[in-house]
Amino acid sequence: MPYSYSTDVLGRTMKRQVLLFVSVLCLRSALSQVSYSIPEEMAKGSLVGNIAQDLGLDVKRLLVGKARIHTGDNAEYIELNRERGLLVIKEKIDREALCAQTTPCALHFQIALENPIEIFPVTVEITDINDNAPVFKKEERRFEISESAVVGSKFMLDKAIDPDIGLNGLQSYTLKSSENFVLKMHSQSDGGKKVEMILQKPLDREKQEFASLLLTAVDGGDPQRSGTMQIHITVLDVNDNAPVFTQNVYKASVKEDSVKGTLITKVSASDADKGSNGEISYVIGSSVGIIPNLFAVNENGNLFLNGPIDYEKAKKYEIDIEAVDSGGLSDSSKVIVDVGDVNDNSPIINIISSSHAIGEDSLLSTVVAVMSVNDHDSDNNGKVQCAIDRNIPFSITSSVSNFYSIVTNGNLDRERSFQYNITVTCSDEGVPSLSSSVTLTLQISDVNDNAPVFERSSYEAYIVENNTPGVSIFTVKAADADWNQNARVSYILEDSSVNGVPVSSYVSVSADSGVIHAVRSFDYEQIKDFQFLVKAQDGGSPPLGSNVTVKILIQDQNDNPPQVLYPVQTGGSVVAEMVPRSADVGYLVTKVVAVDVDSGQNAWLSYKLQKATDRALFEVGLQNGEIRTIRQVNDKDAVKQRLTVIVEDNGQPSRSATVIVNVAVADSFPEVLSEFTDLIHDKEYNDNLTFYLVLALAVVSFLFITCVVVIISVKIYRWRQSRILYQSNLPVIPYYPPRYSDTLGTGTLQHVYNYEVCRTTDSRKSDCKFGRAGSQNVLIMDPSSTGTMQRIQSEKSILDEPDSPLEVRP
Ligand SMILES: *[C@@H]1O[C@H](CO)[C@@H](O)[C@H](O)[C@H]1NC(C)=O
Ligand SMILES: *[C@@H]1O[C@H](CO)[C@@H](O)[C@H](O)[C@H]1NC(C)=O
């Protein structure tokens, strides 16, 4: 027996084969039964056994008996070599194909002989050789195992199949290179083995995500054969890792003027998990003191500025940032953001107190304004310097930090500058520097420090005599540099006297316009000039004043006719010049002497013969008034010669006077007398005229006296009042009577008032003059005077001055 079973596993099969073998031997002895045992897979023609010998037969017998193999329906794997009496392999035998797992595996056939027929059964047992390796149905197997799988979890593995039997069949499995898994085999009732993989150590996807194991099945043959299967394990992720920030604290800084969207910093967290378990989102945790939404973080961990920040409000932000994965695991970190100052705040100027106006007499270092200045920036950006214009008499000082005072540092003069615009400019030291400014308007209030000043140091004015009383002569003007009441100039006539008469009776000064009015009508013949002082006084307290000399020059007018001094024209007597008949040509008869109280041309007199009894006899010297004969007097010439000489002045228009010169051409006085008596022939007419004149004068005198009394009393009353007004030491306040209405803005009624007084005075004067004239006339009115003369005199008295006895109006 070339084959023996050595393993216990197959012990039972072996016992059966031994029993069979014994029975075959017994059968052979009876039926000549033969058994063989050969391994499978022998090559064709290989010897199975010497059947002739084993049956105890001759080879001849085999040939004669036509020995053959009878298999029935079965395939013939073995053939008989009759010549040599051998059984050989006809076809390769595969035990697994023939018997599968059945044991023992044997071929049963008969050797049949003829002549005589003999049947010999033959049994060929086929023994197994290890010609098959274990085989897995699939070459690989995939598992997906969660990393959270617990230790002891079982995973069924595919079995391998080995058709060989016995020791040559599948014996065991091995699993290569895995520390996480072990194999466990379970024998099954059919003799097969169930194999499973057991987790002995937890998986960690984060350490090893994929594993490749090799499952090997081996049989027990010699040589040993094996089969393998690849096991691919994918560890499935479980959210077992929280995100982790790369830093606990991030530091960043950002300028306060950064715009929305500025990237501040990037935070980063990592999560060892995979897929959605490792997806991190960042959120800003809510924390105290941070304006919501001031910062934003995106999915990449970029922290952005999301709103305006202000260094002056917060210098630092601490932001809590959380990283959260989709499983809700999180980590937190802190971002400390330092806000960088930028010079974005201008200084703020606050006027704490300021004067609207100060007096021009304010002392040096008078505080005009106090202000506080603040800059919200820090360091140099918040350091502030303030300045004001150097060209004004003010300076800015700082006593306490951030507080500034504006004080005067020069003399103020409202008359030079009544207002100052003080611009305070405060700049910080940032780069670039920011500044702000305020302008204070300061009024300089007036102090009465300027006296009125007349436009000229003295005035001279001219007025033509015989002016209308009340006419304005001239205006003085004084200016006061001060303001308002301090500059309100009043004009005052200073008291003085002119020729012993108060100057106020000559002129008046309008208190607020400075117009000088003539109070009376001037007469050049009485006064040629006069001067007085006008004082200009302002309305300040105390008032300041100055005075000026005003000289009034009266100009002559041809208002006086010449006056004949000789020959004297008296009413009571008739004077006649005697010319002897023997007088020669050029005999000086007489000389008309006349004067004119006017002056200049107005007093330049010329004489002309106006009428003459005999024009051919006399002539008058044009310049000297000498009356001379121009021819020889003869006897035919009348005794009584009457010459009318006209004396004219050179004024424009000229005035004249006539004088009648009676010349007696005679040698003896009686001759003359007889001739001249007829001159007073109409005495009766003169008497009547005298009566009427006396009556008229009496009436006029009565009216005059009444007027004088009334006027004087009124005048005295008003004069007293004006004295009170002008001599008061108080500041001059123009006096306005109750009826006053200021229509032109200047108090004019006072002038009107003065004017009325002037008129009154004037009319009074006129009345006086008239009265005096009348009374003079009365005195002159001598009954012996000639009627012609008296008539002329009366006319003249009413119309004109009384002084010249004879006048003919031009
Ligand atoms: C001050 O400012 C006011 C208003 O701006 C202006 O009318 C005035 O002329 C200024 N005064 C001076 C002295 O500059
Ligand atoms: C002018 O006025 C001043 C003060 O008002 C006075 O002192 C002075 O004497 C006056 N001058 C004349 C010439 O009167």
TrEMBL record:
Gene3D superfamilies: Cadherins. One of its GO terms (biological process) is homophilic cell adhesion via plasma membrane adhesion molecules. Residues 73-136, 137-245, 246-349, 358-454, 455-564, 579-676 form the Cadherin domain. Keywords: Calcium, Cell adhesion, Cell membrane, Glycoprotein, Membrane, Repeat, Signal, Transmembrane, Transmembrane helix. The chain crosses the membrane at residues 689-714. One of its GO terms (cellular component) is plasma membrane. The keyword Cytoplasm does not apply. SUPFAM superfamilies: Cadherin-like. It is a single-pass type I membrane protein. Residues 791-810 are annotated as: Disordered. It comes from the Eukaryota. It is found in: Cell membrane. InterPro entries: Cadherin-like_dom, Cadherin-like_sf, Cadherin_C, Cadherin_CS, Cadherin_N, Protocadherin/Cadherin-CA. This is Cadherin domain-containing protein. It comes from Salarias fasciatus (Jewelled blenny). The lineage of its organism: Eukaryota, Metazoa, Chordata, Craniata, Vertebrata.
